[in-house]
Amino acid sequence: ELPSTGGVHAHANVRTARLLRYASTEDLALLGLEIAMLLLIVFDVMEKAVFYYTYGTRITDSGWDVYDALFHTLFLIMMAMRLNTVLKFEGLAFDPTVRI
Fold first, then answer.
1. Which long-range contacts (CB under 8 A, 24 or more apart) does 27-32 make?
2. Angle of CA points 34, 19, 39, to nearest 5°
3. pLDDT tens for each residue of 24-68
4. I need a labelling partner for 80 at 20 to 30 A (CA). Which of 2, 35, 36, 50 fits?
């Protein structure tokens, strides 16, 4: 026969999550690298757009161009999702100095 708790035993397991992604000096270095990568990709997209506009070639002429377009699209989607996450965390009211 099951006990009155239904066989459920309480277990204290507290896990903390770091809401601030860039808290330490190493994290700020990571932020700098991410910004540099973002700028490189944005400049590459602009260069490709100017190239195709100037020379009038189509992206589908080469498999590598299709791959580049797919990569740039996925990267821009990923950056939009990251920006959305950052903006949602900015709206939260929390004190980063409190430790559990």
1. none
2. 15
3. 788 788 888 888 988 998 898 889 889 888 888 787 788 888 888
4. 50
